Amino acid sequence: MLAHNGSERQSIAVVGVGAMPIDVHGDQFGGKFNGYCKRTVRLPLSATCGLSENVLGAQFLPGTRCETTGSADFIPSIAHAVKKQVADCILVRMNAGFNGNTLYTQLEAEQVHYFMRLHKDLNLERMVATYLRDDTSNREYVELEYQADSWECTRQVILVVKPRPGGVQ
Questions:
Q1: How many angstroms from the chain centroid is the CA of residue 133?
Q2: pLDDT, the chain, mean
Q3: Considering the entire predicted model, what is its pTM?
Q4: Contact 19/43 with Cβ under 8 angstroms?
Q5: For tag attachment on the chain, is the N or C end more exposed, with fewer CB atoms within 10 Å?
Q6: Distance CA 59, CA 46 (A)
Q7: CA–CA distance from 86 to each of 7, 9, 26, 81 (Å)?
């Protein structure tokens, strides 16, 4: 259960979700070789609350599993508890490992807002190529509607345009 200090409800709460590989040695339970990390790890998935970084919940994943595996129930349950006890509006911050349609659908059903970096995708790269080549534009953000092949619906994507030496990327 989520610990709440009894202060009044907040209007918005940010929940950060991520996994941090922990090296394991020998034959420890759940330790597996992770191809991305290139070592044997356990992969604890944790949810923290905004700037305080208080841990709201954690779940161990075997080291071989990606972050989206096992998070389709974990993240919505944490968001639901925060919404019930702490704030009316929840914003979940995740990294690119959480690009799963099932997770998005569950968060949307709970009316939980979320954001993360998307994995590279050829269709998306073609769609945004115009913005990346146009280094005369002063735009920093471009809002697009996009549907990945694995998604059941179109979602809003915000392209962050970063000026780089030699052109925009």
A1: 28
A2: 79
A3: 0.77
A4: yes
A5: N
A6: 6
A7: 9, 5, 42, 8
